[in-house]
Amino acid sequence: MNIFLANQWGLLGLLAIPAIIAIHCFQRQARPLLISTLFLMPKPQSESRSGRRWEFWRNSWAFWMQILAALLLTILLAQPRIIKDDSTAQVAIVLDASASMSAFRDSATQTVNHILGDTSRLASNTTWLVRDSLATSQRLYHGEDANLLRQSLEAWQPTHGTHDAASALRAAQTAVGREGRVIFITDEANPALESLAEVVTVGEPLANVGFTGVRTDQRDGQPIWQAIIRNYSDTPQQRKWWIEGTSGTQTEPQNLSIPANGVRRVGGAFPEEESAISLRLEGDAFTFDDHAPIVHPRPRPVAYIIRGEQSFAEWIRKAVARIPGIQYGAVDGQTDLGVHSLTSPERLTTLPQPYAIAFAKQGADVGSLSAPQSFVEAHPLVEGLTFNGLVIQREDELPLPPSDNAVVLVWSANEPLIYLESTAQGRVLVFRFDPAQSNLDRLPAYVILLNRFIATARQQRRSPWRENFETHQALPLPSNPIQPYTIQHNQTEPLPLKTWNAPTKPTLFTVIHGGDDLLQGAARFADIREADLRQARTAYDLTTGNNKVIRQNLEDDLLTPLWALLLIGTMLANYHFTGRNT
């Protein structure tokens, strides 16, 4: 039988027992007074000339009745309950996956142990579910073994940026059922989540200094880098910083003073014959922004050709030439993109390049000017763009009509104006008007659309390149690889690339394909919201949830009326014996 005290504060009633003993130890000792007669004298007031003295209490019924009354009152105040033998509880613990929690990982683990001790005694059998706050994450543990649950916490990696935990909390609630509990452990309270879970916060305000941004550039043909170091505290901070090279060299640490809530800029040139460096900062509790690896970017080349008249080629080169890493002709015997001026839609499906851009070709002074009101579809290529303000010269019917399988990107009234056409080789971006007879080159949306489409062609190029990424960022690797990709962090052994994302922690890395280095990258942490630890607080209160489980799984003490009757009887007995002895 498992007995539970619904009100543990009621045990303070036991303090009445030493008080009762102390009272009974203080006795007045009367001194004998001998007289010869009584009827001639008034009744005297008895006084003790010796005053109060301490002595062991006298064994009496009144004493034991008062002790018994204190015990019965304690039982009534503590509210003993019996846990049902068949009672069960479903508890989901959701751990915040934000990187700021890495500074309070030990506190979070201790809090989980505290939760286990607090909630496991409320039911005969408790089923635990542990997961993190990412909507796409898997469970860390699901079962009834508390020891295995503690071991599963080693797989918890709080490395992500700021994100919404609401989806994970709803999924956890669905998993444990309507009557189950969801406890969210985080370092900063969010009132919006308190309706979805019982929120427990860990941590304390900490001063943090870290790298917030880096950039690379060229100066006099020399690659250079710049970085910003920020102080996330209300007091000035002192830190040391240095540079590490890929060959193991390291500069002498330099002292840096950062004012309260201020920033400092550092910069320099890449060492000769090295395309990557690592900036290091003296460590603090939050280590993610103390390391900023940088590579000097080198984009993948995109080879293109132009098929059209001389005037059309000159018009196209004005926009294409501004895009970095693009070359005319072929690179490594491969041409990635073709730009065509077409009169017939039949040629769209026979273009030899895997990616192509096609413009309609019209005769001079054909048709009338038109400024169509454009409508943009929900597609990544045109997201956030607008083509209002476009002026074209058109006939009654626009040329190059789309096929049934085409994806329309921009509409002009009820006519497709710009669309994607699928071919046996790849995709074609089709403009149904002559660019030379329009103001297309004056629209920012055109330049952005062109860059986005060329980026898709660049992604399929299997040439080595260098790039800087944020941690967890998707890597634009060529699809359908001939062999699996592997990833190597610094000088470690290559491992299979399970997800096509940058590493979870700041580091230099290399993606390898077929034994050759395909991508040399640098992953750095860039979410400044997670680096500010001044709002971290500790708050632990599961009273409401515990009381709910108590009401569900505990039986009422059927002896409560008996304890109350015994208390009343004891008080009456005490009154009886006390009155009889006076």
From TrEMBL:
Transmembrane annotation, as ranges: 6-26, 61-78
Record key words, sorted: Membrane, Transmembrane, Transmembrane helix
Span of domain Aerotolerance regulator N-terminal: 5-80
Database matches in Pfam families: BatA (PF07584)
SUPFAM superfamilies the UniProt entry points to: vWA-like
Protein name from the UniProt record: Aerotolerance regulator N-terminal domain-containing protein
